[in-house]
Amino acid sequence: MKVRIGVSHTDKLIELEIDDVDVFKQQMESAMQSGGLAWFTDSKGRSVAITVANIAFVEIEDAPQRTVGFAVGK
């Protein structure tokens, strides 16, 4: 599954590929409660740390969809 994390006060968007949504959500909630840094590895293999106060949004994409012509395939 793909996750996008927006960073406040910048146009930076971090894209991650994750295997387990529940584990990721639990890690995000722990990082938010601690108020410190959250470490991520982006889709290009780079490690990135973000101060949790600077996380603007976290978007979790559902199952990938295929586009066929102008319609969304299932």
How would you characterize this protein structure?
With 74 residues, this protein is α+β, with helices and mostly antiparallel strands. It has one domain. It is built from 1 helix and 7 strands. It has a 3-stranded antiparallel β-sheet with strand order 2-1-5, with no helix packed on it. The longest helix has 14 residues. It is globular, with a radius of gyration of 14 Å. It starts with a strand and ends with a strand.
Secondary structural class: alpha+beta
**Biggest β-sheet, characterized?**
3 strands, antiparallel
> How far apart lie the N and C ends?
16 Å
- Low-confidence spans: pLDDT under 50, at least 5 residues? none
Task: Name the helix and strand elements from N-terminus to C-terminus, one letter apiece.
Answer: EEHEEEEE
Shape: globular
The beta-strand count equals 7
Mean pLDDT: 82
How many helices? 1
Give the percentage of residues in beta strands.
35-45%
Oligomer: single chain
Helix residue percentage: 10-25%
Q: How many domains comprise the coordinates? A: 1
Biggest sheet, spatial arrangement of strands: 2-1-5
Rg, Cα atoms, Å: 14 Å
